[in-house]
């Protein structure tokens, strides 16, 4: 058999079948995970959390960590949202960690302002120097100034722009009474990324929780550190959900989970996607992140949790156990586990923590609460994300070496299986797309049957499933259809268009139910057929955020 025959009649059928199976698996995993979230959310609604004013003996201590870098635009809204979370005020605190790296970068960038002032400015020229929303106004102000005044105008605007450190300090000084305690920490001029800021807070827990009567000697076993991004929109009942999950897991297994993961959904879009083709790429990434969140991250968490609570034979448990992808937007880590890991690992604190706890065989549990975060609307940020994720995931053997000194509940074969599975995932991530594309293109020469299956797989992966994951932000999609539907981002949190927070929530309800037909949805549509579960789930998300004021807070600070 020639190489061409081997490819057309051997490799192509296998790859096309795998592509179709993957599309069907993505649909099934997403649907079942959404149904699980809906079930747990309803259970939480029917089981009200205890009153927030006073803690009971079983309420864990919770520290919300918000590392911020160049987040001066959204810092006030983030502080308002997280300090308003519903939880006993004597058992939780919020710590905002700013960094001297931002101040150093501003000082260095200031030296380049004269060169910028010598030519007409575009908003893109000012990215990184000013908040994205301010760049058009700054560019107009400088361009409209007299030529001999342009440099001074740019200097004045730059120097008047507050840093995240100053914005957070002002917000902390004006914090209303009755909120969770807020601590503002500032990291010195040290190398590192987000993990370094988090470890700064880890080293100062006495300063954060000490005023509430906390000591590590007495309370470490009851303490979780909860990591979020500054752009996150949490449900107000989030902390009660973490506490409920920790209690339920301990009651079932006799152990506290080392990690509790909240599910994040990239629906808090504060900026629209740019025009095509860049916008098409970013909208495709948004749809992929929705599927990944429910169909991969949550599906793996549910499988891991099920394996923890069942009595399967060792070899079968080893075969099924997944590597957990922790996500640093709703990740609660047990303080003793974090101390054992020597803090949050670089370069990605979330993937590294999830991988290391997976290799230790630690208990990891999902919680039914949800948090909305912002999808990427900038190709540079997206590229940086994937580069860091690949770097953190590509060498699971390094994570294994980092925790080799620690006792593990996994046998050596279990660790080896996790490492091998992660390497296989990385290989599929690198080679899967080009191989699948080559197989689809070649499928016609393998026979009409394989060409039809390839077309079906492509449609399921792209337009068909995209239509069930995307809903237009406003108006109707264009009549030429599929590309417009894929391009449509989640409802944009733009106060100029949406008005009040309640109007915003109404728009989200009108346009927000995902994984369903595209276009506007009437009330009758919500009970229409196979996607009822997912439609109800997202209605509950938006109704809950509207009722608790999360969306109003977000819109009010844009």
Short précis:
The chain is α/β, with parallel strands linked by helices and 558 residues long. It is 56% helix and 9% strand. Helix 2 links the parallel strand 1 and strand 2.
What does this structure look like?
By secondary structure, the protein is of the alpha/beta class. It folds into three domains: 61-103 and 164-419, Spore Coat Polysaccharide Biosynthesis Protein SpsA, Chain A; 109-160, no CATH class; 470-556, no CATH class. The chain is built from 24 helices and eight strands. It has helices spanning 3-46, 75-83, 100-110, 113-117, 135-144, 150-160, 164-173, 194-202, 205-209, 216-219, 238-253, 278-309, 314-320, 335-340, 349-359, 379-393, 396-402, 412-446, 448-469, 482-487, 495-498, 501-511, 532-548, 550-556, and strands at residues 61-67, 92-99, 181-187, 223-227, 233-234, 259-265, 331-334, 364-372. An eight-stranded mixed sheet has the order 3-2-1-4-7-6-8-5, with helices on both faces. Helix 5 packs antiparallel against helix 6 and helix 22 packs antiparallel against helix 23. The longest helix has 44 residues, at 3-46. The chain is globular, with a radius of gyration of 25 Å. The chain starts with a helix and ends with a helix. Residues 469-538 and 540-558 have low confidence and may be disordered.
């Amino acid at each position: 058999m020639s190489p061409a025959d081997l490819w057309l009649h051997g490799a192509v059928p296998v790859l096309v079948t795998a592509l179709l199976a993957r599309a069907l698996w993505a649909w099934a995993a997403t649907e079942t995970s959404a149904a699980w979230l809906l079930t747990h959310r309803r259970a939480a609604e029917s089981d009200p959390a205890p009153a927030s004013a006073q803690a009971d003996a079983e309420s864990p201590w919770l520290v919300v960590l918000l590392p911020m870098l160049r987040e001066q635009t959204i810092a006030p809204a983030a502080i308002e949202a997280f300090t308003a979370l519903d939880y006993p005020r004597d058992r939780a605190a919020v710590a905002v960690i700013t960094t001297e790296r931002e101040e150093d970068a501003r000082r260095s960038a200031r030296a380049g302002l004269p060169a910028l002032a010598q030519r007409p400015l575009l908003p893109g020229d000012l990215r990184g120097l000013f908040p994205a929303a301010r760049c058009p106004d700054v560019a107009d102000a400088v361009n409209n100034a007299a030529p001999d005044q342009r440099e001074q105008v740019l200097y004045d605007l730059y120097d008047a722009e507050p840093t995240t450190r100053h914005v957070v300090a002002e917000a902390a000084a004006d914090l209303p009474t009755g909120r969770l305690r807020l601590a503002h920490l500032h990291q010195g001029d040290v190398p590192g990324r987000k993990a370094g800021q988090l470890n700064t807070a880890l080293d100062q827990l006495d300063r954060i929780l000490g005023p509430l009567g906390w000591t590590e000697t007495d309370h470490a076993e009851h303490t979780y550190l909860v990591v979020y991004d500054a752009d996150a929109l949490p449900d107000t009942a989030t902390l009660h959900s973490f506490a409920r999950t920790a209690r339920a897991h301990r009651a079932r297994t006799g152990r506290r989970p080392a990690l509790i993961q909240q599910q994040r959904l990239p629906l808090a879009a504060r900026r629209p996607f740019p025009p095509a083709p860049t916008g098409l790429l970013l909208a495709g990434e948004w749809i992929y992140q929705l599927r990944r969140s429910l169909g991969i991250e949550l599906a793996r968490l549910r499988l891991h949790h099920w394996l923890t609570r069942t009595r399967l034979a060792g070899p079968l448990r080893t075969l099924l156990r997944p590597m957990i992808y922790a996500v640093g937007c709703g990740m609660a880590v047990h303080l003793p586990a974090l101390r054992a890991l020597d803090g949050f690992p670089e370069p990605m604190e979330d993937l590294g923590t999830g991988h290391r706890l997976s290799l230790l065989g630690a208990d990891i549990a999902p919680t039914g609460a949800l948090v909305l975060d912002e999808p990427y609307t900038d190709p540079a940020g997206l590229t940086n994300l994937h580069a860091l994720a690949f770097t953190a995931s590509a060498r699971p053997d390094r994570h294994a070496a980092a925790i080799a000194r620690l006792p593990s509940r996994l046998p050596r074969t279990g660790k080896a299986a996790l490492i091998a599975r992660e390497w296989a995932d990385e290989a599929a991530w690198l080679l899967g797309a080009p191989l699948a594309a080559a197989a689809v293109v070649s499928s016609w020469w393998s026979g009409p049957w394989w060409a039809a299956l390839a077309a079906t797989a492509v449609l399921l992966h792209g337009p068909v499933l995209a239509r069930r994951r995307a809903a237009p932000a406003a108006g109707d999609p264009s009549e030429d259809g599929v590309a417009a539907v894929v391009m449509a981002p989640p409802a944009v949190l733009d106060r100029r268009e949406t008005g009040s927070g309640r109007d915003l929530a109404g728009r989200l309800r009108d346009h927000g139910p995902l994984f369903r037909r595209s276009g506007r949805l009437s009330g009758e549509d919500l009970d229409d057929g196979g996607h009822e579960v997912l439609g109800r789930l997202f209605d509950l998300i938006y109704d809950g955020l509207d009722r608790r004021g999360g969306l109003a807070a977000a819109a009010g600070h844009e």
